[in-house]
Amino acid sequence: MAQYTKHPVTAPPTAPERESTGHLLLRGYVILVFVAGFAHTALYNLLGMYGAGAVMIVLTLAALAIGIPMIARARPHPFPWRRLPWSALGYVALALVSVTWSQWRLPTVLTWLLLVAITVNALLIAHVLSWHGIVRALASAFKWILGLSLALELWVSLVVRGPLLPNFLTLPDDDINPHWYWVRDNLFDGGRIQGIVGNSNMLAIISLFAIVTFGVRFALRARWRTTLVMWMLVAAYMMVRASSATTYVCALAAGVVLMIALLIRRARTPGARARIYAISGGAVVIVVAALIVFRRPLFEMLGRSADLTGRTDVIWAKVLERAATHPVIGNGFSSPWIPTDPSFDGWIIDQGITVFHAHNMWLDVLMQLGAVGVVLMAAAYFGLLWRAWFFAADRPRWNLRADRPYSPLTLLPLLFTVILLVQGLAESTPIMLWGWLLLILFSFKIKSVPLVGVGLNEQSRVTEHGSTARRVP
Length: 473
Fold this sequence. Notes:
By secondary structure, the chain is mostly helical. The strands form two sheets. Strands 1-2 form a two-stranded antiparallel ribbon. It has a two-stranded antiparallel sheet with strand order 3-4. Strand 3 (462-465) and strand 4 form a beta hairpin. The protein has helices at 21-38, 40-73, 86-97, 105-128, 131-160, 200-219, 225-242, 245-266, 270-293, 295-301, 311-323, 361-393, 411-423, 433-448, and strands at residues 349-350, 353-354, 462-465, 468-471. It contains 14 helices and four strands.
């Protein structure tokens, strides 16, 4: 039985404020968007191309149904039009205009609609959820993806006892390219696992994102910290079993940036910060140079070829050859490429399968939208990286008080951005699907809410007591 003091000075305890049903439903919708974005290939393998497309259409219509009335009523706060990520939106506009000169117009239209759907959902999420709400939704989405991945791998190994094809098809084994399998039944034989996303590299990078998110939640002293540790172990196990060299490099880069950011936070004078920047910059240059010089033995140690599994000699060479035909405005937008379109069908073959992206975001943009597209994409990512760094490194301040503690949450956009940029050297996912979702989400959120818990749509979830901000759940 609850007891409390009857001392006249002490106020009686009150029950904690709870989220409204509407906000719970909104957060559930956001979790669904994150799952559909990060595990889009799972929808494709489960529902087929038309089913996956229908899911994205429904989610986009739902985002418009939620967002338009909120913007019209200007509640709880006016929509910050001036804070939109204009470089990224300029890229979206250029992608649409490219229909007029595209060498593959149908793929341009189809993939542009997908790009717009992701953009609309990302803008809505950034506007309607607080920073804490976004991190909680990301954590929940990653739990669903990792949990379902482990469950699917166990089901395939223990029940099916053989590889699983997309859409649960059954074909003679002699007619199947192993790279077509959704799950290859490698859970207990030491091979690379693929999870519900059906791709080891994607499962590995999602696991890395999950580790970062769970770690931030743990540092924020969220409830059920023991459970968060267990989820971090699950994510680490799946990242190791997916065995992606690109993800290992991303993890190393994120670790280095995290260490530098923490050192900057501890620096008490501008001179100390300058010394850390100088030493860190020199160390990064040395490490990058060492990776370039010794890439062959390093990749061999990781069980990978020095040409990045055929990227440099086959894929990148052909992409550069096509990009050279229209170097300024490109050949037309298509992210991802449509493998069934005559322009891409059989153009680049890897492991007997038509490749659907350039395995390098910058070369992909160069081929599609030329130098103009590269400039817009570089501006979008540089702007995000710049703001994310100072979002993490600068002490929160909105009045004369200059001793507020740092929040672990402010490290998450920085680490995610670094992971995306490093991954973009070997993959094109940072410019489509969940990569584009994260770019728009964090760019818009940091511009509109540069302080956690303060300003715009954060204010409805924060109450001020003197000079201290207390977040209301």
